Amino acid sequence: MMDLSGISSFLAKIFSFDPNSPLLFTQFYFWAFFALVFAVFALVKNRKFLRNAFLFFVSLFFYYKTSGLSILILMFVTCSDFLISHRIFAAGEKGKTGLKRFWLILSVTIDLFLLFYFKYAYFLTDVVNTIFGSSFKVYDVFAAAGNMIGGGDYFRVDKIVLPVGISFFIFQVISYSVDVYRGDVKPVRNILDFGFYVSFFPQLVAGPIVRASEFIPQLYKKFFLGRKQFGIAVFWILNGLAKKIILSDYIAVNFIDRVFDNPLLFTGFENLAALFGYSLQVYADFSGYTDIAIGVAMLMGFYLPQNFNSPYKAPNPQHFWRRWHMSLSRWLKAYLYIPLGGNRNSTFATWFCIGLFAAIVLILSGNWIVSLCLVLFAVGVVMFARFRPDSRKKIIANLNRFITMLLGGMWHGASWNFIIWGGLNGIGLILYQFWKNMGWWARMTLVGLVTGLLALMMNVAPAPVWNMLFVWMAVLCLGTFVRFIFHFIRPDAAGAYASGLDAARAKGIPQTFVSRLGNVWAVVQTFTFITFTRLFFRSGSNLDPATANETAWHTAKNMFHQIGPSWTLSQIPAICHEYRSVFLLVLLGMVIHWLPARWKRWYRINFSMLPMPVMAVIVVAVVFLVYQFITADLQAFIYFQF
Amino acid sequence: MYICRLQWKLRMKSYKILLFIFSVIALLALLCSFFPEDGIVIGPFGEADVSESPLRLQFPSLERVFEADAPAEEMEDPEILIQKRMESISNARRNQFFDYFENDPARFYFPGDSITLFDSLFYAFENSGEEPLRVVHYGDSQIEIDRVTAALRAALQSRFGGRGPGAQMIGHQLYNYSISQSTSRELPRRMAYGPATARAGHNGYGPLAQMSRLDSSVIVSYNPRKDNDNPSATFNRLTVMAGNIRGRLRVTVGGNTLVVTPDSLKGKRIAFMEFELADSARACSMTLSGSADLYGALLDGSEGISVDNVPMRGCSGTIFTRVNADHFREYFEKTNTRLIILQYGGNTVPYMNASKQISDYGKNIEKQINYLRTLAPDAYFLFIGPSDMSTRIQGKMQTYPKLPMLVDTLRTYSNKAGAVFWDMYGAMGGHGSMARWATSQPPLAGSDHVHFTKLGADKMGDMLTKSLLLYYDYYKLRREDHAELQRYMDSLDVKTLPVGKAE
To answer: Taking a C-beta distance cutoff of 8 angstroms, is the pair B117, B500 a contact?
Structure first.
């Protein structure tokens, strides 16, 4: 049996920070930690001040376990935004608009500075080195200051470590300052309450990003949890654990990571399968985290916003972004897209962003022609807008959409792969805007022309990427052709539901077999497009910023090289057999994902109403099942790095 | 519609939640303490494959849950380790050859400890300008897409001359680190290794242990990889190897056409059809028509060293005796093959349980080397053992328990067969090093904990080559500066002077 030293080292492990084993929801330690926290929480649950203060300190401890002394940054923004928000509010009360604006700008500047410092330091150093031909290395001034104050070598100064979750909590404090500025929320009276909002541990490191106006009112409510809500909270936690460990970690370690590490070792079919598998993995990983976060918060009586709504059910790219990482999309919409002018007009910020992108592209490519083309293109769009005032609104809206997507890409990191990823998504959104307003003749002509062009490119300038795009477009062309022919017979039924089948069903829109078929087609096309953009996303993630660009480029290129040329079809059965467990899991994951929302609701509610002892036994059974899939090293959540 | 009915507004008391959480933990603890430590075997399902490890249900014991992680084995950062190895190579060059030859983990293990065994090979390297020679690197998936070999080839060709990426298969879309191949159609491919369905039904596989069957015509082109700036990027000679010709085989390269018929082979098994290309060509295209087995194309320089990369996925190196002896003999003789590198063992690691299995495998390798030796009497043999490989043992990635024994066995038997041995497992850091290589940033090995990444393979290839060239430096020192060497030996208090035979 275990002896006392086992327990003492266990305790030591609980209270110390080890950079190699951050506290993850998938560890037993986290749940032991949570059980203890909940025991204390149960005692103070109705004393709001005590409860909030307690959860604040617990959250700080949680962050310390995850990210070490980066906690100082979290505390700093908490203090600075707490103080400034009061100034904003006071200036507003006195009607001093200029002063109010000044404080807001100060607050946002400080927040963005920290974000930029930690997230884009490598990139900016690279910029300076490129422009001046210097060879500066990053030097962490905060780390150096910390060492000076502490009188020791606590931090490495030659490396800037990205504090876990910085993009999430910085966005949260910005939302608070802006909401106070807009008068949507009153400044919080007590700094402990505010700290609790910023750092609430379930959602601290990877969202959902909670908006101040939605969360702060909850701080002043007493604990209440319905019996059904309790069951649902348990359901979300189990759901999240299963998603993370079975659908994300297992298939990643046993298949996807291997292919992305060495694409040339695998056939085209395996590369393509890994790419589609990654789409499921990244969803299961990220939504698994938020499911657990939502469940844990709900057990303590707090409600976090929904972050995912079966995104791969989306029939078009626009709708995809309303279902994927919804809290970020809504954040970007409220604090970026609308201030940019939304779908009405362009503002100074629109032009500032275009200039910024041109500069970034110039730096990344080291080629001013590329950047000039970008600026010329933007100017061309503007001129067009000027001479065609009737389509001006549309153009501006698309421009703002594109900028929002690009910035969304940059939010993940300043490197080519994220820019390409954001750019492709922006293009996807815009193409969809045009497509949905096109007649069938125009659609058919367009798709036919593009397919022809790609066929031409395949012969004139052979490259694997043309083959790949050609096959894709040929399939698209065929599908469009079928729908084109069909619309002559049944002009009413050829379109997909713009907001998905579930929404159509909820609204009671009648469905026919044909319209469902149209929807399946749209969903598959959207899923394929999103998967394709992920090629760039995945290749650059998880890497040291110094090598990210180069590796991402090579990985993407090598994958094209494997997927592009004709495949040896006879190998496919053998490959499927070899990876049968992984492929079956991916298939199962997708089938569950595509179940109608009302089915999911049905089993969720049934679970939540089970008698407690039965529920406990099911929890144990699920944990046992999940443990069978656990990989040797617990895998960190993908979105921890952003 | 719902299975259970419940008052919707029922309130949940917090102590009940607490009770729930703790009873789940208690139930799990109960499960932990009663679940057998070795798990419960429930598989394999379906047709049992002896090579597959059984499927078991597992659950950790209480001790495992509570034990603070044993402090992770103090493994060196692979970057630092590699740097150390390189430093000891350059230090050795200055004054401590013997220390390196006796103790360094990246040293070569010579049969009978005769560290001068390679002398005549080095002599041949030096004279490869007049008499071109070939190094053939056979291996398993660890060397696929020219990994490891590319670094070796680049170093040898820069040092002693030579160009071109060496042997390539014909009629398959291929893309490796040195060259890419495109083909008007995929030719059927038969291999002496891999799944049983890939066999030819006869033993005429050619010297690369694989062949493509041509029955009509095909256009194949070799195109440079733009990022390859090594000497291997250019070549000026293309040799097509074919056999089992029915009717005739016609090959056209840039306006020159060669035709072979069964008669023109004159009793030989392989027809070597040579084409001189423009000097420093980076690409070439050829049209083949007729009916023949194609064994490969050699893209070489007309002088210096050529290095072939011959990867065999899933192979453990015991297939050479399956291939027609004449094919090997004619190839080694024609191309003046002076060094044959065999890099195998990794594919057997997951299935090795008993010592008997390991020694049987060692004996088989000895047999393979002896077989090849009779076919390439002028060649030296170098056997490269498997890298470290890890598997999940009690929830942690650890080195396969039998791997060190396998490495030792392979060293013994390959030395016994007269081959020099290089211990890749030891060179990369020994026990537990794969886990570190796979998790280092940037990754040096893939997440399968078996294969090196391009970066890792380059580092290993580099280490291998630098170590090899250290023996060459020692050889040069002995030849060029006898007096200096004598003084050096005196200072080391070594009585006898090891002088190797030089041709």
So the answer is: yes
